[in-house]
User: Which sequence fits this backbone?
């Protein structure tokens, strides 16, 4: 396979520290040759890490795309509302595209991106990384083998984790639907995609309920200051006390959350950044608007029904699922890598234990990048076509509309309306 080259647009956490790392781990397969990033410190650090010369470092993506085509593909890893223009420009310029999810919070832009991929005959791969996890690949295989007969119902839960939710959706970049996207799209378009994949049928009806119930001013303890480091008297009993998480919680380092606070993650720099920076704010005194819990019910054309729950109020960041069929049921825990199959006829239970790395969505990030690189380098088919990503994104937006309007959405009519 020839080495595939890439240009990175947006050197943030996912772009610079997750997807691009595949180039460092597999240099014979993949190399990042150009970068566009407005933050000078991030741009220079990334360029140094990947050996990118000065003339291939750009402040804005527009500058990158003004050049002659520089690479085989472009990785678009900007914020949610900044994907559309560079994705379209990249495809027009001749690049295949890896786009961070969600594609866009705007329905018309999502559809347009799918149409342009078809028009220009480009690979547009959206980062629905769960399809690449050993866990969901195995579940898909078991369903295809009819191990539980005909699939009838799915029960799926995303446990966001109290600490992850506070970092990303109360203090962080995805806290306001108006500036990024609704929670059900930003965090859970993964899950809508998985439900669509497992059900193997088109969605026909959607309803949803949920709210921002806890992380708001009215629930602030008495005398809680605007910033944790402004002498908060509740620090010993508050699970969201910022210095404790960013200095002591192992996930702050493992999952890279600390680099959202400061690029130079020494204790001194972390404390200084928390003193008046966004990640040091009291979780009850932020300007967040996205829900902290939501339930979605779905019906598919083949009469499979699914219920999905997203909640911030869990100790773990995990996904758990239950698949119920005519001859048995499957229970699964993605993080633990455990799948249990229960047979109705024999009463036997089989337990499958998978190797699931802790980092990178349990190994999904690396598997997705390998698939994307080989789609370009070897012409291999991928697991996520642009048209399928469009459908699952629209399911998430329909769920949000159902939540806000208190109604059941007829999904085919919803799509035709757009």
Assistant:
């Amino acid at each position: 396979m020839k080495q595939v080259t890439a240009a990175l647009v947006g050197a943030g956490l996912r772009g610079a520290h997750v997807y691009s790392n595949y180039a460092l781990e597999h240099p014979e397969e993949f190399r990042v040759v150009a970068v566009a990033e407005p933050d000078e410190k991030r741009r220079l650090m990334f360029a140094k890490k990947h050996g990118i010369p000065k003339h291939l470092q750009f402040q804005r993506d527009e500058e990158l795309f003004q050049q002659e085509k520089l690479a085989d593909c472009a990785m678009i890893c900007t914020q949610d509302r900044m994907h559309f223009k560079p994705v379209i420009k990249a495809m027009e310029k001749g690049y295949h595209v890896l786009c961070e999810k969600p594609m866009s919070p705007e329905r018309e832009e999502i559809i347009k991106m799918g149409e342009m991929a078809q028009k220009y005959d480009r690979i547009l791969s959206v980062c629905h990384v769960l399809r690449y996890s050993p866990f969901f690949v195995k579940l898909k295989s078991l369903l295809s083998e009819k191990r539980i007969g005909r699939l009838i119902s799915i029960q799926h839960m995303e446990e966001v984790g109290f600490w992850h939710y506070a970092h990303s959706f109360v203090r962080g970049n995805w806290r306001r639907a108006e500036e990024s996207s609704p929670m059900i799209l930003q965090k859970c378009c993964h899950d809508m995609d998985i439900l669509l994949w497992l059900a193997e049928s088109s969605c026909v009806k959607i309803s949803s309920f949920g709210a921002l119930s806890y992380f708001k001013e009215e629930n602030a303890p008495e005398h809680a200051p605007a910033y944790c480091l402004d002498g908060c008297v509740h620090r010993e009993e508050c699970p969201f006390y910022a210095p404790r998480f960013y200095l002591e919680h192992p996930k702050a380092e493992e999952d890279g959350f600390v680099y959202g606070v400061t690029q130079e993650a020494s204790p001194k720099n972390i404390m200084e950044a928390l003193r008046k920076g966004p990640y040091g704010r009291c979780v009850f005194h932020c300007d967040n608007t996205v829900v902290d819990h939501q339930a979605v019910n779905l019906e598919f054309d083949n009469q499979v029904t699914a219920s999905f729950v997203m909640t911030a109020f869990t100790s773990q960041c995990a996904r758990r699922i239950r698949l119920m069929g005519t001859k048995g049921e499957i229970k699964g825990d993605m993080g633990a890598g455990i799948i249990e199959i229960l047979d109705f006829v024999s009463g036997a239970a089989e337990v499958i234990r998978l190797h699931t790395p802790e980092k990178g969505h349990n190994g999904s990030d690396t598997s997705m990048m390998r698939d994307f690189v080989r789609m370009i380098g070897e012409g291999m088919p991928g697991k996520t076509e642009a048209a399928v990503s469009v459908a699952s994104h629209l399911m998430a937006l329909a769920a949000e509309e159902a939540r806000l309007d208190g109604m059941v959405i007829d999904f085919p009519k919803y799509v035709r309306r757009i």
In short: The mean pLDDT is 93.
